[in-house]
Amino acid sequence: MQLGIVGKPNCGKSTFFKALTLADVLIANYPFATIKPNTGFGHVKVDCADAFFKVQCTPRFGFCINHKRFVPVEVIDVAGLVPGAYEGKGMGNQFLDDLRQADALVHVIDCSGGTNEKGEPVTPRKL
Ligand SMILES: Nc1nc2c(ncn2[C@@H]2O[C@H](COP(=O)(O)OP(=O)(O)O)[C@@H](O)[C@H]2O)c(=O)[nH]1
Ligand SMILES: [Mg+2]
């Protein structure tokens, strides 16, 4: 299963990706720090059926520790989306190509308003 991370530039997509995968990626306060997509694996922790059988399983994918199964999920972190991308602005539609394979998308949102639609840092909105 592949999960795609989407959102405007400079909103924290690579930060979220790094937290999920522990991969060492460039995180920077300017738009389009990520140009080539980053891919890595995160794990979803679920109860394993091996507890019922009172054995320790050895799964082919991911791993199992103390009856907790860590199911691998591939994550892909791409360049940001800007207005006019369809006309070739920013990274154009290239990021859509990178994301096409994903089974699900996670939309990262900058709730602080500290980044404008082009990914440039601006004064955060007062709440
Ligand atoms: N205040 C704040 N800054 C964040 C948060 N997540 C990321 N950042 C900062 O936002 C900037 C852009 O982060 P990055 O992950 O490179 O964004 P991307 O362009 O969407 O991949 C960096 O300076 C990060 O340190 C957050 O939750 N809170
Ligand atoms: Mg990034």
Write the layout of secondary structure elements.
Layout: E1 2-6, H1 13-21, E2 38-47, H2 50-53, E3 63-65, E4 68-77, H3 94-99, E5 104-107
Parallel strand pairs: 1-4, 1-5
Antiparallel strand pairs: 2-4, 3-4
The structure holds guanosine-5'-diphosphate and magnesium ion (MG).
Magnesium ion binds next to helix 1.
Can you tell me about this structure?
With 127 residues, this protein is an alpha/beta fold. Strands 1, 2, 3, 4 and 5 form a five-stranded mixed beta sheet that branches. β3 and β4 form a beta hairpin. The longest helix is centred in the first third of the chain and has 9 residues. The mean pLDDT is 90.
What kind of oligomer do you see? single chain
Radius of gyration: 18 Å
CATH class identity of the domain at 2-43 and 72-107: Alpha Beta
Largest sheet, if any? Answer: 5 strands, mixed
Helix content: 10-25%
Order of helices and strands: EHEHEEHE
CATH superfamily of the domain at 2-43 and 72-107: P-loop containing nucleotide triphosphate hydrolases
Tags for this entry?
127 residues, alpha/beta, Rossmann fold, five-stranded mixed sheet, 5 strands, 15% helix, binds magnesium ion
Short description:
This protein is of the alpha/beta class. Helices cover 15% and strands 25% of the residues. Bound molecules: guanosine-5'-diphosphate (GDP) and magnesium ion.
